[in-house]
Design goal:
By secondary structure, the protein is α+β, with helices and mostly antiparallel strands. The protein is built from four helices and four strands. The radius of gyration is 13 Å and the shape is globular.
């Protein structure tokens, strides 16, 4: 079953936006989109919450997510999250 993960990144000021911009500028997002099983990796901003950014991340199946979580990309993402001092709220949806 296809799985969509929503990750709400929240920080102080525009740190969440800067995080997503750096993810894009450094080519990290493009590399993730090329990973086996990735169907979508896209950031969205809220008109109401200027301190957060939403990542919509869709995968072919659980195995694809597991491989992504074990990839080198996760180390890079983790370092950037720490750099920008972001909190995460994760919600997972499975196709029925």
């Amino acid at each position: 079953f296809m799985i969509t993960v929503n990750i709400l990144y929240t920080g102080k000021g525009d740190s969440a936006i800067k995080f997503s911009e750096e993810m894009i500028e450094k080519g990290i997002v493009e590399k993730i989109k090329l990973e086996e099983g990735n169907l979508r990796y896209e950031y969205f901003t809220s008109l109401e919450d200027k301190n957060s950014i939403l990542l919509v991340d869709t995968w072919k199946d659980e195995k694809s997510i597991d491989l992504h979580h074990k990839s080198e990309m996760m180390k890079v993402i983790s370092k950037l999250r720490k750099k920008y001092q972001l909190k995460m709220k994760v919600t997972k949806f499975k196709e029925i």
